[in-house]
From TrEMBL:
InterPro entries: TM_pro_TauE-like (IPR002781), TSUP/Inactive_protease-like (IPR051598). Its main location: membrane. It holds the Pfam family TauE. Signal peptide: none annotated. Belongs to the 4-toluene sulfonate uptake permease (TSUP) (TC 2.A.102) family. It comes from Rhizobium leguminosarum. Keywords: Cell membrane, Membrane, Transmembrane, Transmembrane helix. This is Probable membrane transporter protein. The keyword Thylakoid does not apply.
Length: 190
């Protein structure tokens, strides 16, 4: 019921994220691999910074109101959709801080609202990638894709149970460190 009560926020962010996902996937298919790796590395560092600095925000008054909030929501949604499509992720690591800061949402509600925005955004990015030959690699690597899918579902299930156990003081810096290590490895990729 809380998610349904916040449908204007979902629509506001979707207005930008769906367009951003379409463009982000298009950019990813046109960039040279070396350039794409560098862009992804920079985005991973930026996401690590957002995680460390943005996730301790508390619910409260929204940063903006009225028309400026709507415009900022569409712009933030566009940027988040573009980044999500470029990285091939759902974008929650950017959506949650945006929901807390722009709209004053509680962190737990922001997590749920981010899922409502992420799924359609991912589907648009998926649709855009499918128009390119980008998915041919999936057909050649069905076993790997299946293992990753099963691992993702299992990880989400276990993560849901650990959510109340693992403190943010440990989890967020650990995730930021993983992102920074990944950024380094992607930057070095040839």
């Amino acid at each position: 019921s809380q998610i349904a009560a916040n449908w204007p926020i979902i629509i506001n962010l979707l207005a930008g994220s769906l367009i951003g996902a379409w463009f982000g996937a298009g950019w990813a298919t046109r960039l040279r691999s070396e350039t794409l790796y560098k862009v992804i590395a920079i985005l991973l560092v930026a996401i690590a910074i957002v995680l460390v600095l943005g996730h301790d925000a508390r619910a409260g008054d929204p940063l903006l109101t009225c028309v400026t909030q709507i415009i900022a929501g569409v712009v933030a949604g566009f940027m988040i959709g573009g980044v999500a499509a470029l990285l091939g992720v759902a974008g929650g690591e950017l959506l949650i801080p945006a929901l807390v800061l722009l709209f004053g949402a509680d962190i737990k509600l922001a997590g749920s609202l981010s899922l409502a925005v992420s799924l359609p955004t991912m589907l648009i990015g998926f649709s855009r990638y499918s128009r390119d030959q980008s998915f041919s690699v999936l057909g050649r690597n069905k076993g790997f894709v299946l293992i990753m899918a099963v691992g993702s579902v299992l990880g989400a299930f276990i993560g849901g149970y650990l959510l109340g156990i693992v403190p943010n003081e440990f989890l967020l810096p650990a995730l930021a460190a993983i992102l920074l290590i990944s950024a380094y490895k992607v930057w070095q990729h040839k």
